[in-house]
Amino acid sequence: MDAFLHQLLSGLATGSIYASVALALVMIYQSTHHVNFAQGEMAMFSTYLAWAMIQAGLPYWAAFALTVVLSFALGALVELAVIRPMRSAPVLSVVVVFVGLLMIFHSLAGWLFGFTIQPFPSPFPESAWYGSSYLSPHEVGAIVVTLAVMALLFLFFRFTPLGLAMRAAAQNPLSSRLVGVNVGRMLMLGWGLAGAVGAIGGMLVAPVVFLDPGMMSGVLIYAFAGALIGGIDNPAGAVLGGFIVGVLENLIGTYVVGTELKLTVALVLIVAVLIVRPSGLLGKTIVLKV
User: Best label site of 5, 181, 230, 243, fewest CB within 10 Å?
Assistant: First the structure.
């Protein structure tokens, strides 16, 4: 029973990271109706920026905050320079652009920082009082940080004028323009926030999987599965789906298929959701009358 409880709680900790990346995917999908396949590589590149600043002597939380700001700027720049000119392009062309961005960030990280696996520090010391036999201090910290980010985003989108304008621009660009909302600027801010949230996920997962240019490949698949399970158009659903995938990955990987096949669990979940309930648990089912 203790082993099962440990796997369950560890799954929640892992799921919190998947939830943050899934939330970034949903934020992009809401504004463009495309899945940003480069989201994981952008988060990985941001994590390398944090690592470089820490190596240069900057305190962890200062590097963390500065990386979030730089990642916001990077996401906004990608939208402005790459995605906005593709606004009227065919879907296949946009997908190719996303794959191209994935390769660019992957190669750029390897060129600048090397392909050698590097340890990434955790800000939560191993001897911290909030650790236990079920959850390490880093796992507890990852859950708390992720939930805090989710709460801040909820308050921002629910109660601030800028957040409401961003939601309106993502859901109904035409009506938003008619009431004076600068839709292009709102979408750029949305990409910036997605970049910042993804960077937080990257910095939380790096102490666990170590830092290298390919570290987010599997995480992106799990996050994508979480976004589909919860609802690719629903931020709350993406968070819920991320936690579900984290728990299922741990339990099924430990007691059913083994750790070598854990990634298969995410792929099976993606296929199953697309077959049974394409809109996800909390997603909207859109019915068109012809």
Answer: 5
**Residue boundaries of the structural domains of the chain:** 2-276
For 118, the 3-state DSSP assignment is strand
The answer to whether 284 and 232 have CB atoms below 8 angstroms apart is no
If you search the block for the tokens 């995938």, which residue do you land on?
A: 245
Q: What is the average pLDDT across 76-100?
A: 87
DSSP bridge partners of 118 = 211
Tell me how far apart the alpha carbons of residues 280 and 244 are, in angstroms, rounded to a whole number.
12
Distance (Å, whole) CA 46 – CA 20: 14
Query: Phi and psi dihedrals of 118, rounded to 5?
Result: -120, 140
If you search the block for the tokens 């666990």, which residue do you land on?
208
Distance CA 275, CA 176 (A): 34
Task: Indicate the residue type of 208.
Answer: V
- Within 10 angstroms of residue 285's Cβ, the number of other Cβ atoms is 9
Over residues 241-290, the pLDDT tens digits come to 888 888 888 887 777 766 666 777 777 877 888 788 877 777 665 554 55
Rounded to 5°, the CA angle 286-220-186 comes to 55
Q: What pLDDT score was predicted for residue 287?
A: 53
| Domain 2-276: assigned CATH number | 1.10.3470
Of 189, 192, 198, nearest in space to 165 by CA: 189
CA nearest 75: which of 149, 24, 19? Answer: 24
Query: Strand, coil or helix: what is 211?
Result: strand
Tens digit of pLDDT for each residue in 111-160? 999 888 889 988 888 877 777 777 888 888 888 888 888 888 888 888 88
Which secondary-structure segment (H or E) carries 122? none
Tokens standing for residue 63:
């590097």
What type of residue is 61?
Answer: W
